[in-house]
TrEMBL record:
<dbReference type="InterPro" id="IPR002401">
    <property type="entry name" value="Cyt_P450_E_grp-I"/>
</dbReference>
<keyword id="KW-0479">Metal-binding</keyword>
<dbReference type="GO" id="GO:0016705">
    <property type="term" value="F:oxidoreductase activity, acting on paired donors, with incorporation or reduction of molecular oxygen"/>
</dbReference>
<dbReference type="InterPro" id="IPR050364">
    <property type="entry name" value="Cytochrome_P450_fung"/>
</dbReference>
<dbReference type="GO" id="GO:0004497">
    <property type="term" value="F:monooxygenase activity"/>
</dbReference>
<feature type="binding site" description="axial binding residue">
    <location>
        <position position="443"/>
    </location>
    <ligand>
        <name>heme</name>
    </ligand>
</feature>
<keyword id="KW-0503">Monooxygenase</keyword>
<comment type="similarity">
    <text>Belongs to the cytochrome P450 family.</text>
</comment>
<dbReference type="GO" id="GO:0020037">
    <property type="term" value="F:heme binding"/>
</dbReference>
<keyword id="KW-0560">Oxidoreductase</keyword>
<dbReference type="InterPro" id="IPR036396">
    <property type="entry name" value="Cyt_P450_sf"/>
</dbReference>
<dbReference type="Pfam" id="PF00067">
    <property type="entry name" value="p450"/>
</dbReference>
<dbReference type="InterPro" id="IPR017972">
    <property type="entry name" value="Cyt_P450_CS"/>
</dbReference>
<dbReference type="GO" id="GO:0005506">
    <property type="term" value="F:iron ion binding"/>
</dbReference>
<dbReference type="InterPro" id="IPR001128">
    <property type="entry name" value="Cyt_P450"/>
</dbReference>
<keyword id="KW-0408">Iron</keyword>
<protein>
    <submittedName>
        <fullName>Cytochrome P450</fullName>
    </submittedName>
</protein>
């Protein structure tokens, strides 16, 4: 079968030899360096592991340089392993690099044919969606919902302490999803879930997990090898699952949430979107995809980033002690917990947050962008349709930019109090965060994330310390920071079992 695939691949490649190619269109320009050993038609596909592909790209960056061209079947992937190049290509040349590549599930099913803010082309409809998202994610929108974020931070701290007290070791995955999900649910639908066993929580998490899984590039082999797409479908039947999930599971759930939100008395964003629908600005399908995007984008990246932070900190009790001291100093002085607006009192906590996000990034590769026309970069030609991927994993481990990047050293950020949104909008010389993407498609949720993290961290460290799970002999069993669970779009720690233990010296 492999031989037939290879022969057929060769036939298809030869058949396409007459097409205009990069080389003959732009003879004076060079091609971006590409690792050797690419097969006809299949390219580098068989060289890239289905799990944690960024690690392979990282290896190639060291051999072939920071800008590499990887052939994923018929797709050209331009992978960027240097922050200045990412900035030049995705920000400075954003007018021609802000497309999204076609992906069977994301483009056709999840977006109900190109709707919503995340996976659509940068056209008028995307702009309308992005503006709507900014309404709730911009500074004004987040400030209006500050009471929601603060109360969810208090709720999750209580749940983690109770969960640990009642069960000993807890898998923190669902707890970490619950807090950011509730912020989105209350903002968008005026409702919240009350526990990790709440049927609504479980139903929504099912849709989030499905998107993270089906949205992974490896789930769309048909786009890499279109000549075999029918064979893939015959053997794997994935499209049937995608269709069933979208129309029988995701859409009915979100339709119900929107209808209930429009009818209830609580102010929420679903009501605003419903009014816009009555003014013919949006259709019902637009609102379903918008809300589903808010729930997906607003929950799992935040949850996985928090998971990494807390499993890392379970290895560093001395770092936790210093955070607790900083929080206690504020409480002693003010007799209350701080608000986000008082974050400048927490230089150590902020530097630990930044170092956790660098040390173990939740997204190894940002959401792919696409070149919408041919363009030149430093003598290289990047062709229309090329998929552009900043390799966050490599950027965060750069030996050029960081001393001993493999070590966890919060002090490297100690003089850097910039908020996440200040950082991502700063010039490349001072930008210190890479996990939120680049250019026009940069994550619009950065400020919300910053406010959520600050509140969750101060609530947790005012009340508790984080310890590894206990084994059957009562000894600490640390989460292995080198073992990752590749979820598709995100990379999470494996078996994230921890214990949140009430601080005996807690001041609140
Ligand atoms: C730690 C948490 C988060 C991380 C690491 C993260 C990361 C990212 C990344 C890498 C992108 C793609 C950027 C690009 O294409 O260059 C993105 C896009 C996006 N994010 Fe986030 N994000 C986080 C939290 C949030 C939150 C809380 C929201 C709120 C709903 C959100 C909403 C969005 C939206 C709507 C987009 C699509 C933007 C577009 O395509 O125009 N994100 N995010």
């Amino acid at each position: 079968m492999a031989t037939s695939f290879a022969l057929y691949g060769l036939y298809v490649t030869m058949g396409s030899c007459n097409n205009t190619t990069l080389d003959n269109k732009n003879l004076s320009l060079k091609e971006v360096p590409s690792p050797g050993g690419a097969l006809p038609y299949f390219g580098h596909l068989f060289k890239i592991p289905s799990s944690l592909p960024a690690l392979k790209f990282d290896e190639w960056h060291r051999q072939y340089g920071p800008l590499i061209r990887v052939k994923m079947g018929v797709e050209q992937w331009i992978v960027i392993g240097e922050r200045r190049i990412a900035n030049d290509i995705l920000k400075a040349k954003g007018a021609v690099t802000s497309g999204r590549p076609y992906h069977l599930f994301l483009s056709q099913y999840h977006t109900l044919q190109q709707r919503g803010p995340v996976f659509t082309q940068p056209d008028k409809r995307w702009k309308k969606n992005r503006t709507a998202a900014q309404t709730i994610l911009g500074t004004k929108g987040v400030d209006q919902n500050m009471y929601i974020i603060e109360s969810e931070a208090a709720r999750i701290t209580k749940m983690l302490l109770e969960g640990s007290a009642n069960n000993g070791n807890i898998n923190i995955t669902k707890y970490m999803q619950l807090a950011p999900l509730n912020v989105i649910l209350r903002t968008c639908f005026g409702k919240s879930v009350t526990s990790i066993d709440d049927p609504l929580f479980l139903a929504i998490v099912e849709t989030i997990d499905a998107t993270v899984k089906w949205g992974a590039p490896r789930q769309d082999m048909g786009s890499f090898l279109p000549a075999f797409s029918k064979i893939f479908e015959l053997f794997m039947g994935t499209e049937e699952h995608m269709q069933h999930y979208t129309y029988e599971v995701r859409n009915p759930l979100f339709r119900r949430l929107i209808q209930e939100a429009v009818k209830n008395d609580t102010p929420c964003f679903a009501k605003v979107m419903h009014r816009l629908k009555e003014e013919d600005e949006f259709e019902e399908d637009d609102i379903i995809v918008f809300m589903s995007d808010m729930v997906n984008a607003g929950t799992d990246p935040t949850a996985v980033t928090l998971m990494w932070a807390f499993v890392i900190l379970s290895h560093y009790p001395n770092v936790q002690k210093k955070i607790c001291d900083e929080v206690d100093e504020f409480i002693t002085m003010h007799n209350r917990l701080p608000h986000y607006s008082e974050r400048e009192n927490f230089p150590y906590l902020i530097s630990v947050q930044k170092e956790c996000m660098r040390y173990r990034s939740a997204k190894h590769l940002a959401i792919p962008q696409k070149a919408t026309q041919d363009f030149e970069y430093q003598g290289y030609i990047i062709s229309e349709g090329a998929v552009i991927l900043p390799n966050t994993y490599t950027l965060c481990g750069s030996t050029e930019f960081y001393d001993s990047p493999e070590e966890f050293i919060p002090e490297r950020y100690i003089n850097d109090l910039s908020s996440f949104s200040e950082s991502v909008n700063a010039s490349i010389d001072v930008r210190d965060q890479y996990t939120f993407g680049w250019g026009r498609r940069m994550c619009p949720g950065v400020h919300l994330v910053d406010v959520e993290f600050f509140n969750i961290w101060v609530h947790i460290f005012a009340a508790s310390i984080i310890e590894p799970k206990l084994d059957k002999d009562g000894k600490f069993k640390y989460v292995d920071l080198n073992r990752c669970n590749d979820l598709g779009i995100l990379v999470a720690p494996e078996n994230p079992y921890l214990r949140f233990v009430k601080r005996p010296d807690c001041l609140i």
